[in-house]
Amino acid sequence: MDTKQNQGKKMSYREALRAGIEQSLVDDQRVFLMGEDVGHYGGCYGVSKGLLAHYGAKRIIDTPLCESGFVGIGIGAALGDMRPIVEVMTVNFSLLAMDQIVNTAATLHHMSGGQFNVPLVIRMACGAGLQLAAQHSHSWENIYAHIPGLKVLSPATHNDARYMLVQALADPNPVLIFEHVMLLNNEGLVFSEPEADMEQALIRKKGSDITLITYGGSLPKVLSAATELEALDINVEVVDLRCLRPLDSATVIASIEKTHRAIIIDEGWKTGGLAGEISAIIMEKAFWTLDAPVQRICTQEVPIPYPKHLEKAALPQVEQIVTCVKSLLKREL
Amino acid sequence: MNDKLHLDKHHLLERLKHMLRIRLFEEKCAELYTQQKIRGFLHLYIGEEAIAVGVMAALLPQDEIVATYREHGHALARGLSMKSILAEMYGHTNGCSKGRGGSMHLFDKENNFYGGNAIVAGGLPLAAGLALANKKKASTAVTVCFFGEGAVAEGEFHEAMNLAVLWQLPVLFVCENNAYAMGTALALSESETNIAKKAQSYGMKAEQVDGMNVVNVEAAAMEAIDYIKTNSQPFFLECQSYRFRGHSSFDGQLYRDKKEIEQWQKHGPVVQLKSWLMQNNQLNDNELKNIELAIKLEIHEAIAFAEQGQLEPIEELCKDVYSTKILSVR
C-alpha cells in the first residue's frame, strides 16, 4: 500500500457502494445486478447510477415490482453458477421476498445434504431518518439475523461500503447487505483494501471505561457521543459489529472484559431484537466481569411517525447515548 | 404428434414400466408409512404418473428439474435410484439428501434434480432463475418446473410467468392440474379455471393436455421442448389429471365423492396404457407379471438398503448450515 492509498480516498458512502459493484462486475463476468429501478432510473438511492450505460442491459437488469419473483430468480441463477447481486430496493419491501430468502436461499444447502449452495448477494437500503413514515423506515436486520443459513452484513463505514460486497460475493452462502439510508450522502475515506474479514467485528475507537456496541446507521451517532464523552474525560470503546450473522461475540466479550460495562445501540425495536441477543451473549459469557447492568438503546416501540420531531424522538440519539453512559458510570461512583 | 416420437412396443412398454415403478413404489411407501418407517408428511403421486414419466422422456441429462413436495414420481422417472429415495424417506444418511429432507425434499446434483420444494409456488421463480443462468451461459439446457394447480393462486406464479416471458427464459412450466388444492376444488378457488389461459395472458405459449395419457404428455412435452429451444421462449403445459389418494397422509378426503375417484380411476394412466397394450396384443399376462416382479424386486432391495442406512450422528446436526466451498472467480 503506498502512502497515498494509505491515507484513503474521500468519497460518499453511495460512491463507495457503487465502486464495490463496479469492481465486482469487472472481476467476474458472471456477476450481474438485478432489481427494481437499478438500470434506467439509476437506483432508487442513486447507487447504480451510470452502470447501465457502461455495462449494458444484460448485466444491469431492471425488474418489475415483484420481490419474491426476482429474488427467487436470483437464487436460481446462483444455483446455476451465476453471481447475482439482487437489490431489493429497501428492507421494507423485502418481506414480499421473505419466502424465497428464508424458505429457499437459507435452507437449500443443508436440506440438500450439502449438494447445492446459493452464492447470492442481496443488498437493501434500511433504516429511518428521512421522514418516510411507518412503512419506509424499518430496521429489520434482526429478522434476517435470526435465520440459520443466511449471513447478514451491516457496513457502517465507507471502507466497508466499498469492500463488503466483494467479500460477500466470494462467499458460497446467501449474504444480505444492509445499507442505511442516512449514511448514503456522508463523505468518508476508502482505503485500498478491506480492514478485515467480513465476519469480524472491529473496534472503531479504543477506550477503557465502557463498551458501546453498535452497527450500521447508528455507528456515526455512537462515535459522536464518544467524542462528546471524551471532553468529559470518559473514555469509551466502540465496537462495530459489521456482521450480524454470524455475530463476532469474541470481539464483544474481549472488549467487555477490559471495560466491564456495556451499552448496545441498535436502531431496531427493543423487543425481540439484536440488542437483546447481544445482551444475552454478554450474560452467558461475561456476566462475572460486569460492573454494571447491560443497557440497551433502541428505537421506541412505535411505527415510525412522519413528523421530524417524533421521528427523532423514536430513534436512538447522541444525547441519549451520552446520558446513558454518564448514568451507568455514575452509578458506580 | 411430434415426429420424433416413435411409438413402438418397446417404447410403450418402457413408459408402462416407469409408471408401474412409481405406482408400486408409492403403494409400498404408504404401507411403510403405516408401519412408521416413514414419518412426517407423505404426498403420493398415484394417479398422476403419466405426467412425470411423459415429460422426463422428453428431456436430456443436461436439463434441470424443479419439483414440489409430491415428487417421488419425478425423482424416480428422472433417474434417482429408488434406494436413495427410500433411504431419504427413512431419514438415513444414504438418502439422496443425506436424510435431512425426507419425502418432500429429494435432491440430486448428479441428475440436476433441484428438489423437492414444499412451499407452494416457491419453485417457480427458482426454475426461472436456473433458466436465466442457462441463457447467460448460452447453454441449451431447459429447466422444467412441476407444480400443482394450487400454485396458480399464489403471487409467485404470476411473477414467474411474467418474468419468464419478459426475459425469454428457456423454462418449461408443467402444471399438474389434479383438480384439488389440498381439499379445495379448482372452481372454488379460481375465477378462471382454464389455467393454460392464465399463462397465455402473459404472452406465454401454453397448451392443455390429457395428463392421464402418457403418450399425449410425452408428445406435448417434446413439442414444448422443441418450441423452447427454437424460439428461446418459455412454454406452459397444463396436464389435466387426478390424484387418486388423499393430499397427504393426514387427509380424510371429506371434500370429494368416492364415485368421482372411481370414475377417474377407470381411465387412470397405468390401466389405460396397460389395457391398450393388451388389447393390441403388445403385452400378455406373463410379460406383465415379469415386469411387476422385477419392480417388486427393486422395491425389496430398496427397503433393504434403506433399512441398513445409518442415522446422521447428532454431532453433525449443524453441518452444512453454511457452505465452505471455495468459489472460483472468472
Give an account of the 3D structure.
The complex is a heterodimer of chains A (333) and B (330). Chain A has helices at 3-7, 13-27, 51-55, 67-79, 91-94, 98-105, 108-111, 141-145, 158-169, 219-231, 249-259, 274-286, 308-314, 318-330, and strands at residues 9-12, 31-35, 60-62, 83-90, 121-126, 151-153, 175-180, 187-190, 202-205, 210-214, 236-240, 243-245, 262-269, 295-299. By secondary structure, chain A is α/β, with parallel strands linked by helices. Chain A folds into two domains: 3-190, Thiamin diphosphate (ThDP)-binding fold, Pyr/PP domains (Rossmann fold, 3-Layer(aba) Sandwich), CATH 3.40.50; 202-330, Rossmann fold, CATH 3.40.50.920. In chain A, the strands form three sheets. In chain A, strands 3-2-4-5-7-6-12 form a seven-stranded mixed β-sheet, with helices on both faces. In chain A, strands 9-11-10-13-14 form a five-stranded mixed β-sheet, sandwiched between helices. In chain A, strands 1-8 form a two-stranded antiparallel ribbon. In chain A, helix 9 links the parallel strand 6 (151-153) and strand 7 (175-180). In chain A, helix 10 (219-231) packs across helix 14 (318-330). The longest helix of chain A is centred in the first third of the chain and has 15 residues, at 13-27. Chain A is globular and about 60 Å long. Chain A starts with a helix and ends with a helix. Chain B has a single domain (9-316), classed as Thiamin diphosphate (ThDP)-binding fold, Pyr/PP domains (Rossmann fold, 3-Layer(aba) Sandwich), CATH 3.40.50. Chain B contains twelve helices and eight strands. The longest helix of chain B is centred in the first third of the chain and has 26 residues, at 9-34. At the A-B interface, helix 4, helix 6 and helix 7 of A face strand 2, helix 5 and helix 6 of B.
